[in-house]
């Protein structure tokens, strides 16, 4: 029986949109839910980075376009983006550490969108995700990238766990998979 639900698929396929819709559906049926999602930041029609947005509405920088001339020693980069680890950890770690023990009415749901390259620069985040995966009172609704290039340790660890249900989001299924995701998360709470 699955304890956690993860969505995977190529960038831009609609994983975050599905997470947001599932979150709303779960919230409206009274499910205790917390966590964060990642949102594109656009300026003049072009993407300039990503923000982290908590379900309580707090927002912080995950990454921004960097110039090739910036050569800071402690710089975390993914492609052309510079990751703001301090901002990310400041916003996300308190949310993840707020894993409570659930209640008589079922487990609390934690949204983690996403566990990807940028987020995995944070050792504290990796540790917090592992603790959340093993917490008895919590079910995760999260996203992981499709395997590409060098395997990401924690992502492969999650993918190979027996207590995880993974939905592969495609153009063909993204418009009719929402109810399956919501049902799977509700089953994880039992």
What can you see in these coordinates?
By secondary structure, this protein is an alpha/beta fold. Helices cover 31% and strands 30% of the residues. It contains five helices and nine strands. It has a nine-stranded mixed sheet with strand order 5-6-4-3-2-7-8-1-9, sandwiched between helices. Strand 5 and strand 6 form a beta hairpin. Helix 1 packs across helix 5 and helix 2 packs parallel to helix 3. The mean pLDDT is 90.
Share of β-strand residues: 25-35%
- The SSE string, one letter per element, is EHEEEEEHEHEHEH
Q: What's the helical proportion of residues?
A: 25-40%
Radius of gyration: 16 Å
Shape: globular
The spatial strand order of the largest sheet comes to 5-6-4-3-2-7-8-1-9
**Count of helical regions:** 5
How would a textbook summarize the main sheet?
Answer: 9 strands, mixed
Low-confidence stretches: none
Cα separation of the termini: 10 Å
Structural class, by secondary structure, is alpha/beta
Mean pLDDT over the residues:
90
Strand tally is 9
Strands, helices and their partners?
Layout: E1 4-9, H1 15-28, E2 33-43, E3 46-54, E4 59-65, E5 76-78, E6 81-83, H2 85-97, E7 108-112, H3 123-134, E8 138-145, H4 153-160, E9 164-168, H5 178-188
Parallel strand pairs: 1-8, 1-9, 2-7, 7-8
Antiparallel strand pairs: 2-3, 3-4, 4-6, 5-6
Helix pairs in contact: 1-5, 2-3
